[in-house]
Amino acid sequence: xxxxxxxxxxxxxxxxxxxxxxxxxxxxxxxxxxxxxxxxxxxxxxxxxxxxxxxxxxxxxxxxxxxxxxxxxxxxxxxxxxxxxxxxxxxxxxxxxxxxxxxxxxxxxxxxxxxxxxxxxxxxxxxxxxxxxxxxxxxxxxxxxxxxxxxxxxxxxxxxxxxxxxxxxxxxxxxxxxxxxxxxxxxxxxxxxxxxxxxxxxxxxxxxxxxxxxxxxxxxxxxxxxxxxxxxxxxxxxxxxxxxxxxxxxxxxxxxxxxxxxxxxxxxxxxxxxxxxxxxxxxxxxxxxxxxxxxxxxxxxxxxxxxxxxxxxxxxxxxxxxxxxxxxxxxxxxxxxxxxxxxxxxxxxxxxxxxxxxxxxxxxxxxxxxxxxxxxxxxxxxxxxxxxxxxxxxxxxxxxxxxxxxxxxxxxxxxxxxxxxxxxxxxxxxxxxxxxxxxxxxxxxxxxxxxxxxxxxxxxxxxxxxxxxxxxxxxxxxxxxxxxxxxxxxxxxxxxxxxxxxxxxxxxxxxxxxxxxxxxxxxxxxxxxxxxxxxxxxxxxxxxxxxxxxxxxxxxxxxxxxxxxxxxxxxxxxxxxxxxxxxxxxxxxxxxxxxxxxxxxxxxxxxxxxxxxxxxxxxxxxxxxxxxxxxxxxxxxxxxxxxxxxxxxxxxxxxxxxxxxxxxxxxxxxxxxxxxxxxxxxxxxxxxxxxxxxxxxxxxxxxxxxxxxxxxxxxxxxxxxxxxxxxxxxxxxxxxxxxxxxxxxxxxxxxxxxxxxxxxxxxxxxxxxxxxxxxxxxxxxxxxxxxxxxxxxxxxxxxxxxxxxxxxxxxxxxxxxxxxxxxxxxxxxxxxxxxxxxxxxxxxxxxxxxxxxxxxxxxxxxxxxxxxxxxxxxxxxxxxxxxxxxxxxxxxxxxxxxxxxxxxxxx
Amino acid sequence: xxxxxxxxxxxxxxxxxxxxxxxxxxxxxxxxxxxxxxxxxxxxxxxxxxxxxxxxxxxxxxxxxxxxxxxxxxxxxxxxxxxxxxxxxxxxxxxxxxxxxxxxxxxxxxxxxxxxxxxxxxxxxxxxxxxxxxxxxxxxxxxxxxxxxxxxxxxxxxxxxxxxxxxxxxxxxxxxxxxxxxxxxxxxxxxxxxxxxxxxxxxxxxxxxxxxxxxxxxxxxxxxxxxxxxxxxxxxxxxxxxxxxxxxxxxxxxxxxxxxxxxxxxxxxxxxxxxxxxxxxxxxxxxxxxxxxxxxxxxxxxxxxxxxxxxxxxxxxxxxxxxxxxxxxxxxxxxxxxxxxxxxxxxxxxxxxxxxxxxxxxxxxxxxxxxxxxxxxxxxxxxxxxxxxxxxxxxxxxxxxxxxxxxxxxxxxxxxxxxxxxxxxxxxxxxxxxxxxxxxxxxxxxxxxxxxxxx
Lengths: 907, 455
Hints:
The structure holds two protein chains of two kinds. Chain A is of the alpha/beta class.
């Protein structure tokens, strides 16, 4: 695998100045290294080369071979010419200037020059380059092209075809970066126009990036259109607060309101991209629906109060519970979307003022330990996000990366395009399956069995060490209790052949990488899964390339700040359960709409109702806030200074873009500090910087910073010193593979899991006869007495019906109607039609959903997004360690019109 | 590598009894590329075999692939599509790059006034298939593609029939002629009516199922990443490949002795315009324009004088009617004095000669030509997309009598902003040739238009 020795540099001359650049550098980049900016339109460092605009014409001369007469330099496009030794690049040769002037004149022929009413005016490469390189006046007097103006490519992006200069940046982006080829040029030549296939609205969740890429104002943002001019805007560097990737953004504000969000370049985090949720979902900040001040519950319900009243009331109530039952009767939940400063203040408040160990940011968590990899001396996340770019293989378990960490999905795609083999394990098809080298479609909830299966396959045929000898994995064999691949395969419901193939792919890969979904880190078997994942890293010889994702924009920061159960403390799921049972007497909820996010809505409601005291910090009057005794109106992430820590452990600064002066909202850390004072304890904070100072001093992860805050790129820190690559023993976990479900009589013999059906007969024979059929459908036979019961898989979609999304109607309009995804075989059996309404009945009730009938879920399983619909899917679920079973029944709608509406809604 | 040269057939002596095929004067030798023209069933395999068909392939497979490439190189065969690249060099270069490799036959002959390939394909499809097979053997190619102009339905049908026949006779498929490793499949793809698909990289984009737009070079088609489906690819013109079986049979020396020494061989000249006998003529490369017009094409209609000639149809610069002694071949027309900065060579193209008589209104000619390029620009690069359209608009206006004196310097400047290697592919570069050369040669006619409407 070792390539040629590191290449020497080549020397090129840019405008008379020598510069040494790596071989293969493009002339335009070489010029940039020499400090010369060659104007470009179609060229973009993140996209493939087009050579379309011809703006970057330079006079480029090649060194002639020795003994031959010098060749005259010629015009070439700097963006497609790679440097060679002795090359001369004259960026301002008369011929180049003439060509560039010609290009600008050509471009402006059909450009409407409506800069005064164009959003791009003032920040437009076409405008800038026209001023810098264009002719003094155009000579075109013929009829300009007329084309579509203000045409919606989607509810979010607007096209002005007349402005378009056809640089193909947008189409290349869609094809290459998210891999969603929704845009293309139609017609030829002068008549070329940008359209979507069938003129259907674009659906990509990354489409907003084409607005940034567009160099001429042809693509503008529906939400920002006509809202401001660049010179009107103030800017604040910030970090997106909507998922744990921590994309760097710039918040542009006008009159103290955020008018748009732009990505800020950070090659280690988001490069230059941001997803549509991060870009468009910012209108919550200026929403009139926000809580404008604190509320206190009186005899007649919640009513607005002064901060003094609110603090006194909360202090009185909390003190009463503490006095009567002790601090252990108080549960603190939330904190995954706060700044580190808020989280630190909350952790101190819980420990020092409330004196309770029952603190947890991980809603629904069933285990107290927040880091499943702690037995291995690892952090939950151990590689940089950019490691995905150069991995040889990537294993995804229990995560829909496109929806969970959207921009990281783009990085994974980049890695796969560079040669990484993607192994996707999950109970249903996700976006990642499109690029998967192996798909491991396992039974819901059987991730542990699957991981043990992969470990067993590695024991069978161990990876080779550097010297070519098979690695000694006898310790691993013992660690998994001698479980065989076939045995684990039966439990996981996956072909043993596929598991072996996936294991071989991982074993043979350089720098393999493992991503495990955040939900698997809080589930009842998280400890065992952590053991399996840690062992997998060690078995592959890359012990520190295993990673658990986390939920919440600042989940990692909350974890490190100590918003996790202390000694004897309960995880969040148990706090709610105990509160519902009356054992926890007071709930302190920070920025968490438990009724929608706790996996059991009825239990959450019971908990809020039975608790004697409920204190809530919120942005909006959510259903949870409405059940509280005291509600504090907090500021959001765009409205405060501080720091956040992304999933990879990158500490990043954020600066307030919107200042809450004049409003009656306060940062969480200040609420906590003032409430503590009201309770007679006092955290003693009066500025965010004071909390930051304490945070850096108190939290071990940040000790390496020695009190210094990072610059604009943030700094990657680790809570645990990551060990160097190497072996290390294998840890034995209490692997309790779930009891293998028994096959229903009659179903076992007729099972046809898709994987098996395609397998050649000889392979089928070689496979050991499974104890039970590996098909989930067959396994369900026993569980689903009477038929119709399906396993329910639920996870959040990237954009759902969350409160903050609802404040951006354009984005909300792209959210699909709440649906349930059913396999077409099950649908046929149950009489469900695509687009029809379905009653989904679970252990705690029923909701109505639109049916999506396809092959993305295997037979025996259905999928419903967690964050869609009212009520949410958690309304029908019980908080449990079991994978929920639901029954589906088509809803008979009165009248054909209603059915038609349902069909239309589902599309 | 230093084997004895392959056995060569004696160069056929010039025929005493001339073969006529629509020409005014007897041709100087027995045609090879158009031997099947006029033979009933000449396109069928049986007829082809009776003419010694596939003997070239038999000769080739008896040699090593390297030797085949050497023979083709020694023949000094230059590509007939217009660029005039040495075929042996192209094959050898492709063979040096790792497989799998592909062969693409550019049969998208769309240039106005050029129809030699069409005649050749319809008359002698097996000649093309044999040439392709020799190329596949020499370069090591498994899959070959013919991209044929969509409008040439008859040619596509003849090719399909011929391919079927060849499969039936074991001349396509696996172990062709019992040769181990010579497995070739050929498929025919019809274009959808875009001139730009004659550009080899746009053709490959189209063949791959994408929007037909040229690619950036390098990487070149013969290189990894530059060819069809990213694999090293030989892209050859129909006529080029049809020369190859004859080279194999009669030898490189025979071929290189024909016509112009720098670019020898038989050539299918297409003559149209104001000549008495327009058509396709197979003649030695380097035949003079005078001979072509007056000896073979029957002279000018109504005995008018030649005003101008487009030597390679619309994409080339105009030759003045006073310049009839020029040899019509790639080498002559791409060197001084046929070189006009910044636009470069007059160009020979694929040999589609359009002759304009003295009654021709040159302004109308270039207005038409300009409109053609405006319609056919693919739209990828700016100067071609916007510039051809602008020129078309201005020339259309002038031709309709609404010209202004300032339009002429404008046109000249616009042609300089498009031409001179400023565009992504040759379409844009060549789109200005007719206009720029007409403005240089026939300026008074333009001035008459812009100063007082049409004459």
